[in-house]
Design a protein that fits this description.
It is built from four helices and five strands; from the N terminus they run ββααααβββ. It has helices at residues 23-42, 48-55, 59-67, 97-104, and strands spanning 2-5, 12-15, 107-112, 122-127, 130-134. This is Flagellar operon protein TIGR03826. It comes from Acetivibrio clariflavus (strain DSM 19732 / NBRC 101661 / EBR45) (Clostridium clariflavum).
């Protein structure tokens, strides 16, 4: 378990590895996301700026949800969200399909059960015949 600073409020907290927000900010973030989902179910063709203005949620936060693939832009050729590698417009995530395949072509993931006392459950990542182990902290 690592002690890190919350990206939103700056408080120190014990992180389990995946979360970059403290528990208080995570709860607030999930409430904001629920508000967005509810708003979009009532206004399915709403623009990003309408959502931000009507719900008082920063555009930066909405863009983060898009990059996390929690939201998706309906328009195919938008200029709001671009592939981080080639700059092509995308609807969700961080990369277009081509760049995603290019970056993840050699990465394989598989679960290994209880094989070691030191790492009772672990995930192995292989890339170019090199194996690295990710284990719970």
């Amino acid at each position: 378990m690592d002690v890190i600073c919350c990206e939103q409020c700056g408080k120190l907290f014990n992180s389990m590895g995946f979360f970059r927000l403290c528990p208080v900010c995570t709860e607030r973030d999930e409430k904001d996301f629920s508000m967005i989902k509810e708003y979009l179910s009532e206004h399915p063709l709403a623009k990003i700026f309408d959502v931000a203005n009507d719900l008082s949620i920063p555009i930066k936060q909405i863009k983060r949800y898009l990059k996390e693939s929690r939201l998706e832009i309906i328009e195919q050729n938008n200029r709001f969200l671009l592939c981080e590698d080639c700059g092509k417009p995308i609807r969700t995530g961080r990369y277009c399909d081509e760049c995603y395949r290019k970056h993840h072509r050699y990465l394989n993931t598989y679960y290994v059960g209880n094989t070691s006392k030191k790492y009772p459950s672990r995930i192995n990542f292989t890339s170019n015949n090199k194996e690295t182990i990710a284990s719970p902290r």
